[in-house]
Amino acid sequence: ISIITGFVSVPLTINYLGVERYGLWMTIISFTMALKFADLGLGNGLINTLSKTFGTNDREEAKKAVSSVFFILLAVASFLLIIFSLFYTSLPWGSIFNVRTEIAINESGPSAAVFFICFILNIPIGIVQRIQRGYQEGYIFNLWETVGNILSLVALLFAIYFKLGLPLLILAIAGIPIIVRSINMFFQFFYVRKWIKPRLGLFDIQIAKRLLNTGIVFTIITLANILGSSVDNIIIAQYMGASFVTEYSIVQKLYSILFIVTFITAPFWPAFGEAFALADYSWAQRAFYKIQLLSFWVTIMICLPL
Q1: Rounded to 10 degrees, what is the CA torsion of 190, 148, 294, 282?
Q2: How far apart are alpha carbons 16 and 278 in whole angstroms?
């Protein structure tokens, strides 16, 4: 559903915004995605920890890990928000995104602010995804995300119908998922797993250090991923202009169908963590080879037609 809504939104937004403003939007996304390492790899480290504590039924360490990660991410988000607020008015946003029309220049700053704030808010709120994946309930998070994607598409149609500007259109698309994830987090902490709700008193410096050490590896992987996927639009915008980003991003969007492979493999990550905690290596080995084989053939079937 996320891939389908992504494909449907492309012609709608290009026809409404025009080539340059759509390219501006894609460039803003790339600039913001270049900050994906801002969580210091703690989210992925938390998945590892929770999958192991799930196998050993160690609720105490799980509570401390969740609280430690949440408050570090909250501090990171607050720091980024302060830095952005200090420099926002002094930055030449039109030049940064290399846009030329007056409407694109005027909308570049507010559009960047809306998307960046949504990105910052997602840093601490995104912990709900890590918790649900760590407890092998990624399907629950995906159901919430499905609701968010559908509502975002409805909000996009609403924004186009009432001819709202790019900042409000971005708010409609990027803001709705934040609201849905916040509701998901509320249910997680106040109904599903009340015992795991973050508390400052449960912050554990030793667990935080251990997670940060693990997070370094994930941060390096994230930086490599950023160089491979997010920098393209930024380079194109700087050397050729934002309008050329549109042409490139449409093709890039087509190849996003390859993420189906990730949807297949990702649920096994916490399952492997639980298996290692229980020393069930034989199951992990068998499952690993099967998943690798399945991923290979699915990738081939997608790539060859493309």
Answers
A1: -10
A2: 54
Q: Quote the tokens at residue 198.
A: 């973050």
Gap between the Cα atoms of 35 and 116, Å rounded: 10
pTM given for the model: 0.88
- The region that residue 40 occupies, defined by phi over 0 for left and psi between -120 and 50 for alpha, beta otherwise, is left
Q: Smallest Cα–Cα separation from 23: which of 245, 235, 241?
A: 245
Contacts of 186 (CB under 8 A, 6+ apart): none
- Residue count (the chain): 306
Average pLDDT per 10 consecutive residues for the chain, totaling 306 residues: 82 89 88 77 90 91 95 94 94 91 94 93 93 93 93 91 90 92 95 94 92 87 80 87 88 82 87 91 95 92 88
Express as a percent the part of the chain with pLDDT over 70. Answer: 100
Q: What is the Cα gyration radius of the chain?
A: 20
Q: Residue 2: enclosing H or E segment and its boundaries?
A: helix 2-17
Q: Name the DSSP letter for residue 136.
A: T
Alpha helical stretches, state H, 162-204: 166-187
